Each structure stands twice: as structure tokens, then as C-alpha cells.
Amino acid sequence: MKSTLSKSIITGILLTFCLSLLIVLYGFVNSLFCSYQLKITHSPTNQIDLSCRVGKVSVLHTEESHTENTVALWRISARQLLFGNQLIFLIWDRERIGGPLTASTADIDDYNYSVKDFNTLFYFVKRTDNQLTIFEKFPEHNVYTADLKGKLGLIEPN
After folding, report:
1. How far apart are CA 39 and CA 131, in angstroms?
2. What's the pTM?
């Protein structure tokens, strides 16, 4: 009886592990078919350019002064996972690559330094024709709308 119970527990653990692995693989394989570009204007001086190819996401986060001089420029590299309307970025690199280093930091410096230890970001997305609406809950609640050129993945969200 004890042997049967331990076999059942081991079988349950293996099935749970295999199911979890299949779910992650679905998001990974779906994202291998991404081929898109989008531009998000966060404010008149703050812009995000994002592109994805074969599951790899590259982001340029730019802040300019009112005289159009670059105050700060960040490059973020990530892997995309797409599960229906849930978009997940697994970030492996976040670095400041431009703008003067002064005592007063730019808003995007504050943002990127505050989230630098968070390597996984979750977004709910809604696609309508060539418009993508992105709902963000962390680090603050925001809704962005951007023109999307291309495909988010093999199986597109609706």
C-alpha cells in the first residue's frame, strides 16, 4: 500500500512537471514566429521603440529634452513568451547606452533603475487590426496604444 501511494505521488509530480513544461514550450514556440515593430509614445519627450524577431525582443527607451536633445537612452534585451493575450518578457540585459550623465537623472533612468531587478514583465495585450493596446500593471498602471507592424507570434491574440 505504501509503495502504491508513493508511485501515485511520483506520477502526479511527473505529470505536473510535464504539463508545465508543455505550457512554457507553447509560449516559447509561439513567440519564435514574432516579427514586429512598434513605437510607444509615453509622453512628448519619452518614447519606446520595440521590435521582435524570432522571439528576441529589442527595446530602445529614449527620453529627450524639450529642445530634442537626448537626455537618456536605454537598451533592453529580452525573450518573448506569448500565451493568447498574455505577453511576457524575460529580460536578460538592461543598460544605459546614451545621454549625458548628470547629477539630475532623467525619468527613464529612475524607471529603469527601479525595475532593474525585475527580470520578468507581464502585459495584457489586445490587438485590433494594426493597433495594439498594452495594459501594464507594474511598476505602475498604464494603458498604451501603438501602431503594430507585423505579427506578435504564430497564434495572434485577438
Report:
1. 11
2. 0.81
CB pairs under 8 A, 24+ apart, for 107-111?
107/46, 107/63, 108/46, 108/61, 108/62, 108/63, 108/72, 108/74, 109/72, 109/74, 111/139
Q: What is the pLDDT of residues 69-81, one digit of tens each?
A: 777 888 999 999 9
Q: Are 30 and 153 in contact (CB under 8 A)?
A: yes
The answer to whether 58 and 77 have CB atoms below 8 angstroms apart is yes
Q: Is the pLDDT of residue 92 over 80?
A: yes
Whose CA is closest to 78, among 47, 107, 115? 115
Grid-cell match 529642445, residue found: 67
- Distance CA(80)–CA(31), nearest Å, equals 6
| Residue type for position 97 | I
- Which stretches within 32-106 are classed as H helix? none
The CA distances from residue 142 to 8, 26, 40, 125, in Å, are 46, 27, 12, 12
Strand-pair category, 35-43 with 120-128: unpaired
The C-alpha torsion from 109 through 110 and 114 to 120, rounded to 10°, is -50
The set of cell numbers assigned to 70 is: 537626448
Beta carbons of 37 and 53 less than 8 angstroms apart:
no
